[in-house]
Amino acid sequence: xxxxxxxxxxxxxxxxxxxxxxxxxxxxxxxxxxxxxxxxxxxxxxxxxxxxxxxxxxxxxxxxxxxxxxxxxxxxxxxxxxxxxxxxxxxxxxxxxxxxxxxxxxxxxxxxxxxxxxxxxxxxxxxxxxxxxxxxxxxxxxxxxxxxxxxxxxxxxxxxxxxxxxxxxxxxxxxxxxxxxxxxxxxxxxxxxxxxxxxxxxxxxxxxxxxxxxxxxxxxxxxxxxxxxxxxxxxxxxxxxxxxxxxxxxxxxxxxxxxxxxxxxxxxxxxxxxxxxxxxxxxxxxxxxxxxxxxxxxxxxxxxxxxxxxxxxxxxxxxxxxxxxxxxxxxxxxxxxxxxxxxxxxxxxxxxxxxxxxxxxxxxxxxxxxxxxxxxxxxxxxxxxxxxx
Length: 389
Known about the structure:
This protein is 41% helix and 19% strand. By secondary structure, it is α/β, with parallel strands linked by helices.
């Protein structure tokens, strides 16, 4: 398949810096895709997403097929016109959400029958339907339907899901209609079993997908197990296709995965954290709900180029979060998405310069150091009460 074009411009160890060209533009790798589950990155406008540096976003087939409906989005010109986001879009197949959200589901080799978590209506998702839905959405990168199991799980269950995912991959591959600038990714499954991962990867590579995702991780296993699984999987994926680690993750997860040859990431962590009062900085996460910030006039990070991190005091952000003000969600989400995009820019630059090991050591040291000490300067003066008391 040659629907999208991937070029590697630089390597540093196993890490790669490259570029993916799609029907709706190109994006640099390593890339982090902000999650726009319902065709929106929660709490942000598309202009804010662009200013943060994102070049590709993710949308979710399961949610969009239920509301507003893939057919309606197709009639309205596809996701790009419907949303106003003109850049590349990757859509996941919906399989994970069927497994995690559906009130009632029946899985067979034919596909999945499930009831909507919204209204209880009955639906069926087959490999062919998953591909058709993503074509209706006009996704630049579509994903095969797969079966994901939560870890830890018995080896027999993991192997059964992996084999079924391979059968579904063949059907997705056959159903996909090649178009210039549009691609289909296969998904490697197999839990943390190195042998199963190799079998899955080799079978998918033989099917010749446009790219390859590593699925079924960040679902309960320790970080060390995830890294071992990547080390057992990535060498069996072709060097001339992009590699996508699904649903990952923390900044340290991403750093370790890039060092092991992964090119693409997505995760709800930066947006979800922003809505719950947590901000990411180079010195780790900061809980703005904490009372230590209520009199702190300092910004989140005075060296940051993100307006949310640079131009607002911690005291103000604390006030917004504790007051439940929408602006608090907006500013912290913007900070977090910006932070993740800066991490990716820094990773690309370090790979290109051949200094990834030095960058990784500095990043890990700053992260381990933790947030700056609590404010110890003078507390703000409280004006004396006027005549009105």
